[in-house]
Specification:
2 domains, transmembrane, six-stranded mixed sheet, alpha+beta, 515 residues, Neuraminidase, disordered N terminus, phosphoprotein, transmembrane helix
């Protein structure tokens, strides 16, 4: 090896020693100074802000809960326990028969709640406060306007009026129960007289939501006050409250005296006088039942269940041409849908109270009462039928000696529902109480699934038939059924049309409507 190369080798050794010395001296420095610093991660840089934001949101949540709980709720709900909903099978088996109905006067007749037939013409009341006649399914004529204009909006209802139940006498006179103004006698000439003003007070409460009316031939009138606390435009609050604020009223046209016949009813809606004039059938909408109330005879004053546990809220009850009754049903899916909310909230009154912003007895709210007018049970009431699949509205006779019952809009109550919402709702008054504090129930109703349904009862209160529109595309709400013998007309408190279904009495009809 040359000297030159040896020198180079020695230099490398010296450099190595120098580097080792330098390294040993640098070991006294902190660890993070001996290496190049890496950039901070996103979490290291902004994590503290995340925790600050989370803490702020938690504080807002706590403050919000405190504020809601301290607010006064508009309702005082009770705890309700519902029976398990009837399965949709047999006479309640779903079908699409209502989808065959035709819509008449779409956009011209809004909210034809109740229907009567007189001299070939149909008479009904509309959302804008009119009493109209319909001739040959083609011509509409305004007979009278009970209130004063402007009309056509919720804020005008209390002055414009809202005609609901209509009854026709054997003398061809119309009797109209206006939800705001009271009970009227209306002549076909357009002249009318106020018989019972809604401002008249009974036991400290005026008639707040007059609904349906009937009359004993040449005798007393009976009419329903669905809720002495809430007006018609606020009826969703009554549904959420589930309190027995309803009353059956009576009026004597000779003495001009009126009073309370029956107290503590769950939103009494449609009423119907029996063929023998000895009892009344009363739709208790928020009890999913129909009561039988005796007004004559040994049972006068007694009541019993005519039918209960209906698939929805019953509205009006009217005769069917077969001798039974038709019942309109509302809010079917609230009991029978995949999320039957009414069952859930009924058991949680405090929840209802807080959410809408105490507790009481357990009742059923899905049927009709039977109220006896004469005989041994006169003045008595009993449940005619309960546990209907929807909320019953009006009840009317059917051609076979039974009754047609209109069931309200919304979901159907079903036994197989994985979440029994009406049962859950009824048992939770606290939930209902809180709910109304932060959201209007009117807002919630628009999200309900649509389902049209009417049911037919026989004279014993047994469900013998039902007509459905599971999609609600043609009919999603039925308040009342008018059975002419050749066709069925369907009223509704909110639909902008009158629906008609050809329905002739001939062989094969039973098979058709039960399919």
């Amino acid at each position: 090896m040359s000297e030159k190369s040896g020198v180079r080798q020695r230099k490398r050794v010296e450099e190595l020693k120098s580097e080792e010395t330098s390294s040993s001296q640098g070991s006294d420095k902190p660890w993070d100074q001996r290496f190049k610093k890496r950039p901070p991660t996103c979490w290291e840089q902004y994590g503290k802000y995340f925790w600050m934001l989370l803490l702020f949101e938690f504080i807002l949540l706590v403050v919000g809960i405190i504020v809601v709980l301290s607010m006064e709720s508009p309702i005082k709900p009770r705890r309700i326990q519902f029976p398990t909903a009837r399965p949709l099978e047999g006479a309640l088996a779903p079908n699409t028969i209502l989808q065959n109905a035709k819509r008449l006067f779409e956009g011209e007749v809004i909210g034809p709640e109740s229907l009567v037939l007189l001299d070939g013409k149909i008479y009904t009341g509309t959302y804008d406060g009119r009493i109209v006649s319909i001739e040959d399914d083609k011509k509409i004529t305004t007979i009278a306007r009970l209130g004063r204009e402007p009309c056509g909006a919720p804020e005008y209802e209390h002055t414009c009026g809202r005609p609901l139940g209509i009854h026709v006498s054997e003398h061809g006179t119309l009797y109209v129960m206006d939800g705001y103004l009271g009970l009227f006698e209306v002549n076909l000439t357009g002249e009318y007289e106020l018989l019972v003003p809604s401002s008249r007070s009974y036991l400290g409460h005026p008639v707040q939501l007059g609904n349906d009316v009937t009359r004993v031939p040449d005798g007393d009138f009976f009419f329903t006050d669905s809720d002495f606390k809430w007006q018609r435009r606020d009826f969703p609050y009554s549904v959420m409250e589930l309190s027995p604020n309803g009353r059956l009223m009576w009026f004597n046209p000779t003495s001009r005296f009126s009073n309370v016949a029956l107290l503590d009813l769950y939103f009494p809606n449609g009423i119907l006088l029996s063929p023998d004039n000895d009892f009344l059938l009363i739709c208790e909408s928020t009890a999913f039942r129909i009561l039988k109330y005796y007004i004559r005879g040994e049972k006068s004053g007694d009541k019993e269940i005519f039918v209960d546990n209906l698939p929805g809220l019953p509205d009006n009850i009217r005769p069917s041409s077969s001798g039974g009754y038709w019942v309109g049903i509302h809010f079917t899916h609230l009991r029978t849908g995949s999320v039957p909310i009414l069952n859930f909230l009924a058991e949680r009154p405090m929840l209802r109270k807080q959410l809408m912003k105490v507790n009481g007895s357990r009742e059923f709210w899905d049927g009709f009462l039977l109220y006896h007018l004469k005989g041994d049970k006169a003045g008595q009431k009993e449940v005619f039928i309960g546990n209907l699949p929807k909320v019953p509205d009006n009840i009317r006779p059917s051609r076979n000696g039974g009754y047609w019952v209109a069931l309200g809009p919304g979901p159907v109550r079903q036994e197989e529902s994985w979440f029994p919402f009406p049962e859950w709702l009824g048992a939770r008054p606290w939930f209902r109480k809180q709910l109304v504090k932060i959201v209007r129930p009117h807002f919630l109703l628009q999200f309900l699934p649509k389902y049209g349904m009417v049911i037919e009862l026989n004279k014993d209160g047994e469900i013998i038939n039902s007509l459905h529109d599971p999609t609600g595309e043609v009919i999603d709400s039925v308040s009342e059924v008018l059975d002419t013998g050749d066709a069925l007309y369907f009223g509704s408190f909110n639909s902008p049309f009158l629906a008609k279904l050809d329905y002739k009495s001939k062989p094969g009809k039973e098979k058709l409507i039960r399919s």
